[in-house]
Amino acid sequence: MPETYSTDKSFALQLDATDPLKHFRERFHIPTQNNQELIYFCGNSLGLQPKSTRAYIEQELTDWQHLGVEGHLHGKNPWFYYHHFLTESAARLVGALPKEVVVMNALTVNLNLLMISFYRPTPKRYKVIMEYMAFPSDQYAVENQVKFHGYDPFDAIIELTPREGEATLRTEDIQAVIAQHQNEVALIMLGGVNYYTGQLFDMEAITRFAKQCSNDIVVGFDLAHAAGNVTMQLHDWDVDFACWCSYKYLNSGPGGTSGVFIHEKHAQNQSLPRLSGWWGNDEKTRFKMQKGFIPQEGAAGWQMSNAQILPMAAHRASLAIFDEAGMEALVHKSKLLTGYLEFLLLNGKRKDFSIITPADPAQRGCQLSIVMQQNGKAVFDTLTQQGIIADWREPDVIRVAPVPLYNTFEEVWHFADRFHSA
């Protein structure tokens, strides 16, 4: 990262000129208005479409057109095995072994399926730790899983809240809560990156501390805002399970398919309950149509239904781009982009705002959450009218995410210039 940034536009142009990833922008469709490209800083909500997506989907449509049901075994990419085409790329994204990862279903469906297996409360150990202001789907899923087992959410759910006057959580405070409730906690269920503040939690330290407190504490993460945004090593960190969507940083289309991680130590644990279906059964005997579920090894054994071929084709197109760019290079550029945005915001004329996302690059991805002290929605609407696509979160936050695959330093400069003038 540069020792100093500059508010001069020429500095942004210089960074773009020397950016080794700049050519990846050409791989994406950039939204336009009046024949002008918009500044799209909303990849934390819905990533842009790779230009290759259409060809990946059309291949499967062609096989469906010409082969019908025979596409399952005789298509160019046989549908019977389609999830295998995604496994290694998905594993690289989250730092997992291939057998620990599978792509299936949608995010909240997978979150509920995984909690059926990994939230196993007992009369003494039944509580769940999650962050305050978790994404609503996570709150609803945990609340209803707790009710499903006959517990009161107000008693069973422990919410991690920041210190007074602070917006984000300190790792030592999370650990203190774990230690305080170590004999009662069955599950820790956190977002890898909090959707509202943009804080990246120290998943390694949290998992390690929980396991030191008790091997009976299960640790899971919702990586919706982390996958494709930050580097992770879920296997080495000994995380029990995780899931993520593919439509944010992973650019795989609205409502895109989801990824699942289950640590290999659980792969052969037949005592774990699960909801099962024929796509999770041993592939060698799947079409014998016999009674008796025999799960595939690893995360693939949690599959239930046929692979979602068209959403998976879109996801495969994006994963190919991630494999080519590499997460290390993407995260390096992400830190430059986000650091530059932070610098320009804090060194302009506008002072009626604060940034609640941690200033430490190790505690964030590419999102900055800007809290407006007054007229926040009006400022946001003005930016939208000026061709900037960000997003608004009630009551007072503008979320901005300069994504390294397709955003530029010049766009960051223009955003800051219009923000200070709005």
Describe the secondary-structure layout:
Layout: H1 9-17, E1 32-33, E2 36-37, E3 39-40, H2 53-67, H3 71-74, H4 84-94, E4 101-104, H5 107-118, E5 127-131, H6 136-148, H7 153-156, E6 157-160, H8 171-180, E7 185-191, H9 203-213, E8 218-222, H10 234-237, E9 241-245, E10 258-262, H11 309-325, H12 327-346, E11 353-355, E12 368-372, H13 376-385, E13 388-389, E14 391-393, E15 397-400, H14 409-421
Parallel strand pairs: 3-13, 5-6, 5-7, 7-8, 8-9
Antiparallel strand pairs: 1-2, 4-10, 9-10, 11-12, 12-15, 14-15
Helix pairs in contact: 1-14, 2-11, 4-11, 5-6, 8-9, 12-14
State the main characteristics.
422 residues; 15 strands; four-stranded antiparallel beta sheet; Aspartate Aminotransferase, domain 1; Aspartate Aminotransferase, domain 2; 2 domains; alpha/beta; 36% helix
Care to describe what's here?
- The structure is a single chain.
- By secondary structure, the chain is of the alpha/beta class.
- The chain folds into two domains: 9-50 and 326-421, Alpha-Beta Complex (Aspartate Aminotransferase, domain 1); 82-323, Type I PLP-dependent aspartate aminotransferase-like (Major domain) (Aspartate Aminotransferase, domain 2), CATH 3.40.640.
- It is 36% helix and 14% strand.
- The strands form four sheets. It has a seven-stranded mixed beta sheet with strand order 4-10-9-8-7-5-6, sandwiched between helices.
- Helix 2 packs antiparallel against helix 11.
- The protein is globular and about 70 Å long.
